[in-house]
Amino acid sequence: MPEVEMVDATDVVLKVENLKKFFPVRKGVFSRVRSFLHAVDDVSFEIKRGEVLALVGESGCGKTTTGKTLVRLHSPTDGKITFLNRDVTHLRSAVDRKWFHGKSQMIFQDPFESLNPRKTIFDIVSEPMNIQSEGSLKYREEKTMEILKRVGISPPNAFLWRYPHELSGGQRQRVAIARALVMNPEFVVADEPTSMLDVSIRTQVMKLMMNLISDMHMSFLYITHDLAVARYMSDYISVMYLGKMVEYGETEEVIQNPLHPYTKALISAVPVPDPEFKRKSIQIKGGIGKAIDPLPRCRFYDRCPFAMDVCAKEEPSLVDVDDGHKVACFLYDKKEE
Amino acid sequence: MANTTEGMTASSEIFESPFKIKVKLMWRAFKENWRIFSESKIGMLGLWIVIIFAVAGFVVYPILASTIWKSTSLNAMVSYNPVTGYDFTIANNPAPPSLAHLLGTDPLGRDILAQLLYSTPREFALGIIAALITVFLGTLIGTVSAFYGGVVDTFFMRLADLVLLFPFIPFLIVISGMMQVNLLTLALIIGLLSGFGGITIILRSQAMIVKVKPFIESAKVSGASDPYIIVNHIIPNIMPLSFLYMMFNVTGAIFSEAVLSFFGLLNIRMSWGLMIYTADTAGYIVGTNIGTYWWLWLPPGMAITLICGAFYFIGRGLDEVVNPRLRRR
Amino acid sequence: MKPILEVKNLKMYYNTRSGYVKAADDVSFVLNEGEAMGLVGESGCGKTTTSMAIMRLLAENAEIISGHIYFKGKDLLKLSEEEMNKVRWAGISMIFQAAMNSLNPVYRVGDQIIEAIVTHEPNVTFEEARERVASLYKLVGLDPKRMDNYPHEYSGGMKQRAVIAMSLSCNPDIIIADEPTTALDVIVQDMILKEMSRIQKKLNMSMIYISHDIAVIAEVAEKIGIMYAGKLVELSDSVTIFKKPAHPYTVGLMSSFPSIKGEKKELVTIPGEPPNLLNAPDSCRFAPRCPFATKECWEKEPPYEEIEPNHFLACFHPQNLRKQVSEYARG
C-alpha cells in the first residue's frame, strides 16, 4: 500500500475482543434447542485506519459470520466490539445505531443478488443517504454521480436510470462498491466480492478496490477463500478454521512462512498457474466438519498430521510467535516453555 | 446487455426532476411488459374479451337504453330499465329472439340483451373490488408474516389454513340468510375471506424468497428500519405476483356471485346469476325446456364463462411477464 | 499418438428472437489417446457449448451450422440418436458442472451408479454391476462400504468422487469434466484433481477439462486451448501456453491471475468486458480490448493457423508480438 506511511500506527478503527457467535441448532419434533453451532468462537483482532485484513478459510469456517456480526447483520453472542473508540457491541440507542450504520458498510459476494432488481442504479447507490436522510436530493444526486465516476461507471448519467439487469456482472459489482462507499464509511466488510466475476473482470475490480482503499483511508475486512487473492489485497491475513482463528500475521509473512499445520495444508493446496511447478502438498485427513458443541480441544485435531496428546486435552490459544505473527498451535506454544 | 435505454438515458439531464424520470421509467417498463404480454395469444384473447364486455357495458348500453330501447319503456321520458322494462306489445313471454329483442325476452317480458349489458359494469365492479381487497390484505399479511416470522407468522398461517378449509359457498349462504347482502357487501366478504386465505400463503412464500436476498441485508447494513425494508424492498418485489393473483381473484369473485344469485340468496335487482335464477324459478330450465328456451340461460351463462375465462387468460398472459422463466427465447 | 477425437470447424449458434448467438464459432482441435486437454475461458466463451456439442446434448434452439466431430473416425454429428446413445457414457462420458448436486437424494449412491451401468449395458447382471461399482469406488478413493449410503451422508468431496466413479462406470474412452472442482474448497479441490489425474494416467484415458481457472488447468492438462468469445484463439501444449503465449488475450489472462508462489507481481488488467455474441461481427473479437489491434483486426477475422508445430493461433500479429507482449506484461 503506498499510503502506509501516512497511517498513524495507534489509529485503531475497529477492535474486536473475544467475539463469539453461536447459532442454536434445533432438532426433533419439539424444536427444543439442544446444542449450539459455534460459528465464531473467541475471535480477537484489530484493524487500523487504511489497513486491509483478509479473513481466509474454507466454507463453513465462520469467516462470513464474523463479517456479518461486525456490521450488525447478526448480534454477537459474547465479546466486545469497539469502533472508533466507542463500544458498539450492543448499540442500544437509535442515535448509536444511526451513527454506526452511517460509518460501516458491506460489499456482498453475488452482484446479481445484492442489487434490488426493481430499483434503478440511482436508487441503489443513493439508498444509504436516503436511509440516513443525509443531504438534499440535489446533494444526493451529486454524490451519486461522483462515486459512480470513481468506481469507473462512466459516464454516470448514462447509467443512473438503468436497472441492474441491464448491466454486466462487473458493472454491477462496481455499483455495489459505489453504494457501499457513497457515505465515506470508516470500515467496510467485503465478502468474497470478486469470486463470482470472470477472471479478466476480477483483476479490474481488485485493482479498483485497492485504489479506493488507499484513496479513502478505509479499514477493510476482506473475506475470501482464495489465498492468492488475499495475498494481493491485504496487509494482514487471518486464517480461520471451524470458528477459531488459527493464525494471524502480515500477509507475506503468513504466505511465505505459514506456521499452523492447517495454514500449511491450505497454502500447499492452492493450484499454481505454472505447469512446470510441482507442488508438494501436505496431506490432511478427512473433511471439514461442523463445530456443534465442540469438545475443549484443538478443532484441527482429527485432521492434523502432527497431532499430539496435549492437542486432544486442551484448546490452544493464539500466541505471538514472531513479531506479530500469531498462531494457535501447541507445536509452537511448547517452544516458549 | 443494455439496448433498450440508449436513447432515453443518454439525453436525460441529471437534474431533471426525479419524479419525471420515474414516470418515464415506468412508461418504459410498461412498454416492455406490454411487448411480452402482447406476444401471449391467450392473454390477448382474454384482454379482447374484457374490452368487448367493457365497451358493451359502459358505452353501448347507456346509448341503447336512452335511444332505441326507450320506446319500449313504461315511461317514455326515462331510459329503458331492464329490471322494470316490460314490453307490452308481446303477448307470450318469454319470447324468442326477434328484431325488437335481439336475445328475446325473459318470463317477465324484459329484454335479455339489456339485462346482460346492464349487469356487466356491476360484475366488473364486484370482481375488481373483491380482488383489490384480497390482494391488499394478502400482500400486507404475507409480507409481514414472512418478515417477522415467529408468532405473527404462525397465527396468520394457521388462519390461512382455516380459511382454506372453510366451506366458502355454504358460509356465504348462511351470511346471506343473516343479513341483506348486496353487491358491495358481497365484494367485501369475498375480498376479506380470500385475503386471509390461499393468496397469503403464496405471497408469503414469495416474500420469504425476497427476504433472504442480499439486497435486504445490504439495506440493513445501511441502517434501514423494518417498515422501510418491507415497503421499499419486499413489497415491490412481490407486487407483480400480487397483480397476477388479482386477475385470478376477479374470476373467483364473479363466479361466487353467479352461484349465490342462482340460489337467489343475494339482495340485488339484476345480475347474470339472477337472470339464470329467474328463468329457473319460472321452470324454464327443466327437462326439454332447456332446449326450447335456450335464450334464457345461454347468454348469461356464456357471459359468466367468458368473463371468468377472460380474466383467467389475462392472468396466464401476465404470468409470462412476471415469471421470466416462462418466456420463450 | 493416435487421435481419438477430432473437432473440425465446429460452428454452433443459438437461434434467438433477436438473431444468432455465435456461441462456438469455428472451433477445431484434436485430442489424442491418453491425453489430458484443458479448455480455458471466461463464462460465455463457448467452452461448455463445445463440450455439449461433442456429447450432442444441445439446447432446443441450438443449431450446428457446420463442422464435424470425428470420434474414432465416425462423425458424431451424422449419427442417429440411437447410435449416439451408445457413444454417450460408453464412448464419451461427462462430468457436468455442479454434478455433485445432481445425485438424486432419495436413492442410494451405489444404486444410482448401478442404474447407469445397467441402462447402458443391458447384458450386465446386477451382481456384476455391483462388483464393478465396488472396484470403481476403490479406484476413486472411496470406501466400497459407503455404496449403500444416501447422498446427504456424503461430504462434498465424496459426492464429487462418486460422480467421477459414475462417469467411469461404462469404461469410456474420453471423459469431459466441466468445472469439476468449482464448488469445492481448496483442499478438497486439490485431492480431487490429483485423483482424476492419477486415474486418467492409470487407465490411459483421454480427458477434456473445462475451467475458468487457468491454475487448475495448469495442474492437470498437457495441452491447453484458450477460448474467447466463442473462438478458440490459441492451442498448444501447456508449457508453451504458459512460457511463451502468443495471443494477447492469453498473455493478459496469465498476468491477471494472482499467484501464491514466487514474487508478488503487479497484476495486469485486461480493459473492457467480453463482447456480446449476438450477431457478433466477422472481425477479431478481442480487438476492442487488445492493445495491439490494428485496422486489419477490426476488419477481418484472423485465421486459426499452426504457427509452429502444435501451436495454433488466431491472431494477425503473432511474429512481432512476443517482444511487445513481454513489455505489456511488465505493465
Brief write-up:
With about 325 residues, chain A is an alpha/beta fold.
Task: Provide structural commentary.
The complex is a heterotrimer of chains A (337), B (329) and C (331). With 337 residues, chain A is an alpha/beta fold. Chain A is built from 11 helices and 12 strands. Chain A has a single domain (2-112, 188-199, 217-336), classed as P-loop containing nucleotide triphosphate hydrolases (Rossmann fold, 3-Layer(aba) Sandwich), CATH 3.40.50. Chain A has helices spanning 63-70, 94-103, 121-131, 137-150, 169-181, 199-216, 227-233, 251-256, 261-269, 309-313, 330-336; strands at residues 12-27, 32-48, 52-56, 78-83, 86-87, 104-107, 187-191, 219-224, 236-241, 244-250, 319-322, 325-327. In chain A, the strands form 2 sheets. Chain A has an 8-stranded mixed beta sheet, sandwiched between helices. A 4-stranded antiparallel beta sheet of chain A has the order 2-1-4-5. Chain A is globular and about 65 Å long. Chain B has a domain at 119-326: Orthogonal Bundle (MetI-like fold), CATH 1.10.3720. Chain B contains 13 helices and no strands. In chain B, helix 3 (41-66) packs across helix 13, helix 7 crosses helix 10 (226-262) and helix 10 packs parallel to helix 11. The longest helix of chain B is centred in the middle third of the chain and has 37 residues, at 112-148. Chain B is elongated and about 80 Å long. Residues 1-14 of chain B have low confidence and may be disordered. Chain C is an alpha/beta fold and 331 residues long. In chain C, 33% of the residues lie in helices and 24% in strands. Chain C has helices at 47-55, 81-87, 109-120, 126-140, 156-168, 186-203, 214-220, 238-243, 248-255, 295-299, 321-330; strands at 3-16, 19-32, 36-40, 62-71, 74-75, 92-95, 174-178, 206-211, 223-228, 231-237, 305-308, 311-313. In chain C, the strands form 2 sheets. An 8-stranded mixed beta sheet of chain C has the order 6-7-8-3-9-10-12-11, with helices on both faces. In chain C, strands 2-1-4-5 form a 4-stranded antiparallel beta sheet. Chain C is globular. The mean pLDDT of chain C is 88. Classes of the chains: A alpha/beta (337), B mainly alpha (329), C alpha/beta (331). Chains A and C meet through helix 6, helix 7 and helix 9 of A and helix 5, helix 6, helix 7, helix 8 and helix 9 of C.
